[in-house]
Amino acid sequence: MQTIKKQTVLLAVFTLLTVCASAQDSLPTRISYILSTEASVGTGDYTAYQLATNRHHVLATRPNTAYLRGALSVEHSLGRDFVLSGCVDAVAAVHADHSAYLQQCYANLSYKSLFIELGAREEPPVLRDDLLSSGAFAKGTNAKPVPQLHLGTNGFVDVPFTQGWLQANFDGGYGKFLDGDYRERAFFRAQDANFRYVTGIWYHQKHLYFRTNPTKRFFVTAGIEHVVQFSGTKHDYSDKQEPVVIDKPADFKTFWKVILPLGDKQYFEHGTMEDWVYGNHIGSMTVQIGWNIDKQHLLQAYIDNPFEDGSGIRKGNGWDGLWGVQYEDKQPGRRLVRRAVAEYLQTTNQSGPLHWDSGDYPEPARSQITDFVVGNDSYYSHTFYGSYAHYGMALGTALLPSPIYNASGNTDFLDTRVKAWHLGVCGEATDRISYLVKGSYREGWGTYNIPLPTRHHSFDAMLKGIYHTGPWQFGASYAFDKGNIYGDCSSFNFNIEYHGKIL
Fold this sequence. Notes:
Blueprint: H1 6-22, E1 29-43, H2 49-52, E2 65-79, E3 82-94, E4 100-111, E5 114-120, E6 148-153, E7 157-158, E8 166-176, H3 180-189, E9 196-199, E10 202-212, E11 218-230, E12 232-236, E13 244-248, H4 252-257, H5 267-270, E14 280-292, E15 297-307, H6 310-313, E16 321-329, E17 339-346, H7 365-368, E18 381-382, E19 386-387, E20 389-390, E21 393-394, E22 418-428, E23 433-446, E24 451-469, E25 472-483, E26 489-501
């Protein structure tokens, strides 16, 4: 990874100039900053799983690593319900996956409950618990944020003419992966394990959720997340000689077609071969039921159903999904159990082991194939784009081991048929000391195309204590991995964080 990408530098300059120029007005302005440092030491091939995952890839997966981080945030009221805000967040690390980079850099313009934003931002999950959950399937928190231009709502907003009984949450936009250099270097480091890499990948994401009034005794949330990798340049070394270079367009037509999984039904005749559907489509459909036990206690149960094509949308993938229960105690003061999450993830079905579709073959074979079997969804994998990852880390759930962990150097997902159990609990032991406990056990069988000769398994757990005093926060953690996925890893982690305000 280059120290700072050209696009990111331009965005940082834009953010600082725009926001700081606005701060010269007499209208209210708030400027704050966060300074932090973190170090992890231990044994094993990696930093323990629970310390490095679902944190936007800030802490390196390499063992014995540390970083310094500084973030400057500005928020300025423009009057008439307009608010302009921005952030520049830089990290410098040692013995890390990346040595120096901008983790976040964005400018945001909000009007009442709506916003438009440009840049890279660590987006929190809409429904899943940011601290305790194993992560969302499509729009997770495991990888570095992808820079994008997007618009949406600030949280859930009332749907007009429903008198508050129905609320909606929307976000959608386009961005671009910045990891082209990383993908190229990863390919050449292990060329015997790979046959292609793709640069210049574009990104489309959106979600739409509806929720009934959450103050009622029972309420329901339902909706969908959908992401797409599209465009880009593929360098194919299948023949191990000269590469075959294939460019995908990034024109208006393509941007329009990836909103829904559309494509060229005559792709054989047009010679494009991978454009039966434009791009790599991944998504999740959610149904969640909430129960306000009383005004202070909330219990919710949910199912996130993954899909990569129509069979998953039709729930042809059986019991595949993230099944979970989450509890929250909203009472003020010290609560020994503030929140708790229990989840079960299954991705073993993938709509069955076979995929037999006449549309995948040219004439005359197409008209001769009468059977129709749609399966082998191969979650997070794609013929053209390879892996649904950013800088080697899965953009969805971390329970499907990311390519960055592949000892062979293979840049694809090699173990996506998994069953996993996950538990997370947090609370306050005293007025100043809080804690976090997380643990996961998973089993994996590889993929349908390349099954593992022996079942992979891993138990990963973490205990963290946090001491709060004024603007300071001190944390200490211990985490470990046992099994044949990440090996036996043991990590002690220490972090210090300071929150300051300039205006």
